[in-house]
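for the writeup, i need someone to sanity check this before i put it in the appendix. the sequnce is what the collaborator sent (i think, or maybe the updated version? ugh). structure was predicted straight from it, no edits. if anything looks off just tell me and ill rerun, i have time this weekend
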Amino acid sequence: QVQLVESGGGLVQAGGSLNLSCAASGSIFSINAMAWYRQAPGKQRELVASLTSAGRTNYADSVKGRFTISRDNAKDTLYLQMNSLKPEDTAVYYCNIAVRTSVIGSYYPYWGQGAQVTVSS
């Protein structure tokens, strides 16, 4: 019913930038909270940044001042601008969006397919 398609991952040198996108499509009635997670090899998935429907943002300490989460409501798209990238940022990045598919439904969290981000030293 709802699909999230991520784009923008890739290989970049330390100090470089990448901008991830997560486009939602399908039976979308409304969107609530949105977030980016990442999972490095051998590690648990961790929250990178979140954005509430009211516009409140929250960042992991490790990315504060370097990453910016934003959304385009007209396009149902979530972004993650990543600057000053470090090798330790290397991971698969996943978007997570809470979507309601009908006026009487509840919000359900959907996941993107994941985007590989590799930062070389």
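The mean pLDDT is 96. The chain has no helices and eleven strands.
thx in advance!!
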